[in-house]
Amino acid sequence: MSLLEHAAVALALQIVVGLVTRNWWAGALLACGYFIGRELAQAEYRWIEQFGAGLRANAPWWAALDPKVWTKADQIADVVGPIAANSLLWAVMRRRASAA
């Protein structure tokens, strides 16, 4: 998935949760949590392949946070994009609710 697709899916999830619960912050947290978890899992797998001899048992708890496995801008953008999109929608909906 591209950055725009990640952001679109995250926004769709936030909109569903926001419309159902009227809690736009919860929708943002759920959507961002999903994509952050997904990217951290992929980074952990990259660490295991590169430094852990292919064995999960060799991975330390911080393996997914090792900067050596975050080598491409799109890996970081796949985390930052949904956070930025969801934060923007949350801010818009918060302002809209306070104006009403």
From TrEMBL:
It comes from Aurantiacibacter xanthus. The chain crosses the membrane at residues 12-36. It comes from the Bacteria. Keywords: Membrane, Transmembrane, Transmembrane helix. This is Uncharacterized protein. The keyword Transmembrane applies.
